[in-house]
Request: fold
Amino acid sequence: MLKEFKEFAMKGNLIDIAVGFVMGAAFKEVVTSFTGGIVSPLIGLLFNTDFKDLRLKLQDGELNEAGEMVGEVYLEHGQFITNVLDFIIVAFVMFLVVKGVNKLKKKEEPAPEAPAGPSQEDLLAEIRDLLKK
Reply:
């Protein structure tokens, strides 16, 4: 069982997937910081607020004994839109990467075909000639 697991874990495709997953996670962090640090503030200028903090109060809360507001319910549409922007950016970049890889694959020359052996007709003719002798 251990040998089978080792063979499975060391397959090339699985290693490629693992590397892609790690790179994708790191890339998502870059996109999140780009969206949160650059895109959201610029869009926030339009709304005169931090874009990630856009939210709609659905229910008022009450003050507890400590003087803290509890029970408030918000619809956090700013954070949702930020996450959608993150997804769109990541999806677009992944599209460009896949498109580039496909373009590189098309440029590769196809492997030369293996030399074809004699056809069936040639073999049958040779057998006929051998039988005639």
Observations:
- The chain has a mean pLDDT of 80.
